[in-house]
Write a structure and sequence with these properties.
By secondary structure, this protein is an alpha+beta fold. The protein folds into 3 domains: 56 residues, no CATH class; 169 residues, 2-Layer Sandwich (D-amino Acid Aminotransferase, Chain A, domain 1), CATH 3.30.470; 86 residues, no CATH class. Helices cover 29% and strands 20% of the residues. It contains 13 helices and 14 strands. Strands 2-1-7-3-4-5-6 form a 7-stranded mixed beta sheet.
Length: 383
């Protein structure tokens, strides 16, 4: 369907005129929200249940990049991009993370088991004592390519979703040797209450956003990523994975709203597709421990003012899957039906004197007299 026809459908669904929708979408595209025309549809901003100030708090991918420029210290980006470096720092601070078993196709310290070739990985996986094992890119996002290997049956690997693939082809397909390799780690088991909700031991974790204020760390948003049972990860993938999202009340840990899908296909407050259990009203297990873990762990990353944490909810307590230097804003906006650039975030940014930077250009040729960095959005860092 063409974008124009999509807007015609949105006009029909909302009972609003096509010109009204196009004008509103253009205002959000050209304003500090930098919202794409298709993003306007994905977030259902054509509907009548939000007023203009509420819609103006939604941001698009372009606004997300501006927020990253402001809230992420370039000097520290690599600590969130290379998961092995991230885990080494967290392990040094005694923070709970999945146990690392090996690295594939990357040169790392000898304290980590090295599997340098596809043949070495195949030999590792053929040893039943090593299974099950979870594999993910050391440098990557959105869970792309992540795989749970549960068994090796003859010359085939058996994956967590039940699919089979030739072992040699699987090992050769993971990496071409140019990246930072793959991490092999313990597979995690979902907390019993989550396993009952989803009829699966696969992880349904949290995306938690925190903000480092001058006075301490404040948790601002929390999203429950509910595994629908079709994938080995709980990633939403813009609705394509079939997984669901739930809004978590920061004070109580209770799910107050849930969604599946985006745009015209989005459903509000659906039941879990396997168990038919309602998501709204579910209490996230170990929620006080999660809040304490995030608040404490954030202090290890002073250059990330507003990171997004991926937390696994396990029977033996929460574990950090990774810290995203900023984290995508679309999960929050879909789950909460509230713009990421809400009054709370704007207030926290204003407290640090950062709010005006949302509306200015990057000024990449301007050098700061204080920290000698290039770019207006980087002049505020005190080092």
């Amino acid at each position: 369907m063409s974008l124009l026809n999509t807007y015609r459908q949105a006009a029909h669904v909302s009972g609003r005129s096509l010109p009204a929708l196009l004008i509103e979408a253009a205002r959000l595209r050209l304003g500090p929200q930098r919202l794409g025309l298709s993003e306007y549809i994905d977030f259902q901003l054509y509907q009548n249940n939000l007023d203009w100030p509420a819609k103006a708090a939604f941001g698009g991918l372009r606004a997300q990049q501006v927020l990253k420029d402001i809230l992420v210290d370039d000097y520290l980006r690599f600590l969130s991009q290379d998961k092995l470096s991230m885990y080494a720092l967290m392990q040094g601070f005694g923070l709970p993370i999945p146990r690392l078993r090996a690295m594939y196709r990357t040169l790392r310290p000898s304290s980590v088991l090295q599997l340098p070739t596809p043949q070495a990985l195949a030999a590792y996986l053929r040893n039943a004592a090593h299974l099950p094992v979870y594999l993910k890119r050391a440098f990557g996002s959105y869970g792309r390519g992540n795989a749970l290997v549960t068994a090796v049956d003859g010359d085939q690997v058996v994956l967590g979703n039940g699919q089979k693939e030739t072992l040699d082809d699987f090992c050769a397909s993971l990496d071409d040797g140019r990246g930072l390799g793959w991490i092999l780690q313990d597979p995690l088991q979902a907390h019993g209450e989550i396993a009952a909700l989803t009829r699966s031991s696969k992880i349904s974790g949290l995306r938690v956003h925190s903000f480092r204020t001058p006075g301490g760390v404040q948790i601002t948003k929390a999203i429950f990523k509910v595994n629908a049972g079709l994938r080995d990860s709980d990633n939403f993938e813009h609705g394509a994975s079939g997984n669901l999202l739930g809004t978590v009340d920061i004070e109580t840990g209770r799910v107050t709203r849930a969604i599946s899908g985006v745009g015209f296909d989005q459903q509000v407050n659906p039941s879990h597709p396997l168990t038919m259990a309602p998501l709204v009203g579910f209490n996230v297990p170990n929620w006080p421990e999660v809040k304490q873990l995030v608040a404490d762990s954030h202090t290890a990353f002073p250059g990330f003012l507003c990171p997004g944490w991926d937390i696994a909810l396990c029977a033996d307590g929460p574990k950090i899957l990774e810290i995203n230097a900023f984290g995508d804003i679309d999960l929050s906006q879909h789950a909460y039906r509230r713009g990421f650039l809400d009054e709370n975030l704007r207030s926290l940014m204003n407290e640090r004197g950062l709010l005006p930077l949302l509306s200015v250009g990057p000024g990449q040729n301007e050098r700061s007299p204080i920290n000698h960095r290039l770019g207006r959005r980087r002049h505020h860092w005190p080092w």
